[in-house]
Recover the amino acids of this structure.
């Protein structure tokens, strides 16, 4: 009864909105699915298989209500690279493994971690992929028949070699498509009955009609086989599996980044909240299922998801409806693809690629930070000029180096001489001759980890020159300590003891104290009072004055 009520409520409240949104989104997704498949170096129907199956599965199992999943521009480059390196069997196996990785990411609740990849790295990847797609579509825009190449310089060389075969008709169709996509939205917005119609479908209809009626001889998509895809068994060869593993991990990471970024954009447009870990699992399920139906790796698409929201989607059913409409097109309108000019698809993808190259982000990054700019440019160039797997690996490495440098810059160690002598701890120290002569106080600001050791060493060397018998390390502002920090702290305590100096650690945070107590040697040093732990610096000063000083001090 509850199910019937829910269905009835859905039909009354949301079905009409979801149907409209799903239909329009499917119309937008149709040329993109075919275009991204061709750009990826696979048959056009594989793009439609991907859009149908992924659209259904992720909408049903994912954690974002409005995200639309299918083949995307970001994926085309890594798919093409994997296809060239390992063939179709290797690509399908890599897609399956990528899905397994994404499910693992979701189970381990790494959804939020993916969001912490620095913007310069993401911008570099995205812009680099956009540049590769742009260059890869030049042959189609010029009417040249050039197989998809793995590297941009190979594509450019092939274009130059075939320059005498350029078709002016293809150039006109490509240029006209771009103009229609740019200017039709503004014109159509003024006409009530067609303002919801996607400009891309109008451009598609016009280009198909031109080819059909005028018999224009330019490269075409070719007829798409009508019917459902056959089940395709994967080649689980251990040697092939190990070989494609790096590519699979790259696909998983790129898919996770784009999918979660899309979910965040959808949240911003609708004031909703997505479940990032569930979204990763949903994306993973789709990517594991797709290879069995000749589908290529997928992820959520920001542009299609935005259309879905803009057209009034209310539930995840709009994504399922979009997939069902694409399935109907696949079953009954496949032969129409025989008249779709590749120049039209080139126009669509050139606009997509130009939007991926975010000039504003480049300018903003350059104005804010030279270090971020260097990371962005290096990532961009590596993406364009080298293997994408290597570019992703180097991008992640650069992001770690960036984090390390910034954490290191946060670290600082101050002596109390830097502060006002009439206030706080200094008031206590400089009011007493014994404390002023025999105590050095250092305030450690920031995480006490391997990156902080250089700063620590310089301050310690400075102290060894001063040679005061009592050393207080204030640790109130140390949020964590790593193994290297503990080892260096032990070495410092031992070296100080040999110099007949005593070390006091004050205001140690509970988490830091827990890490320190887990080290047996450091615990032993504490028990033998080779290092003293005090709740506050004032407590340490009171202890020192009481035990070693000659005059009274108020506690």
């Amino acid at each position: 009864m509850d199910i019937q009520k829910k269905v009835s409520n859905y039909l009354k409240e949301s079905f009409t909105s979801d149907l409209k949104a799903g239909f329009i989104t499917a119309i937008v997704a149709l040329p993109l699915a075919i275009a991204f498949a061709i750009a990826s170096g696979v048959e056009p129907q594989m793009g439609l298989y991907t859009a149908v199956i992924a659209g259904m599965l992720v909408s049903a199992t994912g954690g974002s209500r409005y995200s639309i999943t299918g083949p995307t521009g970001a994926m085309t480059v890594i798919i093409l690279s994997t296809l060239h390196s390992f063939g179709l069997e290797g690509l399908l196996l890599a897609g399956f493994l990528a899905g397994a990785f994404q499910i693992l990411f979701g189970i381990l609740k790494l959804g939020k971690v993916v969001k912490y990849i620095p913007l310069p790295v993401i911008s570099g990847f995205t812009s680099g992929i956009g540049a590769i797609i742009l260059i890869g579509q030049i042959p189609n825009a010029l009417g040249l028949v050039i197989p998809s190449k793995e590297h941009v310089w190979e594509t450019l060389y092939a274009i130059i070699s075939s320059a005498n075969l350029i078709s002016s008709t293809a150039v006109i169709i490509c240029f006209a498509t771009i103009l229609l996509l740019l200017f039709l939205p503004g014109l159509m917005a003024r006409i009530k009955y067609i303002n919801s119609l996607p400009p891309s479908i109008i451009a598609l209809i016009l280009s198909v009609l031109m080819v059909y009626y005028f018999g224009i001889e330019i490269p075409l998509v070719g007829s798409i086989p009508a019917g459902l895809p056959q089940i395709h068994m994967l080649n689980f060869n251990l040697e092939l599996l190990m070989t494609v593993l790096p590519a699979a991990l790259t696909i998983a990471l790129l898919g996770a980044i784009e999918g979660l970024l899309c979910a965040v954009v959808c949240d911003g447009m609708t004031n909703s909240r997505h479940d990032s870990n569930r979204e990763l699992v949903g994306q993973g399920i789709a990517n594991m299922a797709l290879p069995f139906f000749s589908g290529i790796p997928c992820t959520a698409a920001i542009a299609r998801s935005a259309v879905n929201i803009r057209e009034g989607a209310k539930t995840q059913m709009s994504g399922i409806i979009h997939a069902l409409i694409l399935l109907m097109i696949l079953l009954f309108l496949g032969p129409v693809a025989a008249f779709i000019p590749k120049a039209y698809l080139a126009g669509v993808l050139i606009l997509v690629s130009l939007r991926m190259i975010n000039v504003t982000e480049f300018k903003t990054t350059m104005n804010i930070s030279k270090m971020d700019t260097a990371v962005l440019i290096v990532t961009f160039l590596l993406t364009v000029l080298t293997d994408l797997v290597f570019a992703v690996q180097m991008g992640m490495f650069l992001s770690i180096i960036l984090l390390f440098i910034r954490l290191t810059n946060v670290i600082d160690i101050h002596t109390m001489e830097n502060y006002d002598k009439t206030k706080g701890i200094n008031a206590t120290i400089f009011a007493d001759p014994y404390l002023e002569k025999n105590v050095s106080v250092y305030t450690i600001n920031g995480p006490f980890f391997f990156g902080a050791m250089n700063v620590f060493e310089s301050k310690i060397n400075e102290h060894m020159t001063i040679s005061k018998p009592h050393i207080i390390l204030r640790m109130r502002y140390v949020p964590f300590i790593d193994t290297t920090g503990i080892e260096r702290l032990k070495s410092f305590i031992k070296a100080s003891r040999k110099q007949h100096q005593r070390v006091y650690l004050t205001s140690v945070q509970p988490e830091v104290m827990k890490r320190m107590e887990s080290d047996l040697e450091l615990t032993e040093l504490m028990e033998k009072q080779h290092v003293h732990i005090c709740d506050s610096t004032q407590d340490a000063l009171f202890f020192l004055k009481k035990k070693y000083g000659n005059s009274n001090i108020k506690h």
User: Anything to note?
Assistant: The domain at 412-549 is CATH 3.30.750.24 (Transcription Regulator spoIIAA). The CA atoms of residues 370 and 376 lie 10 Å apart. Residues 551-555 have pLDDT under 50 and may be disordered. The chain has two domains: 1-142+233-340+359-387, 412-549.
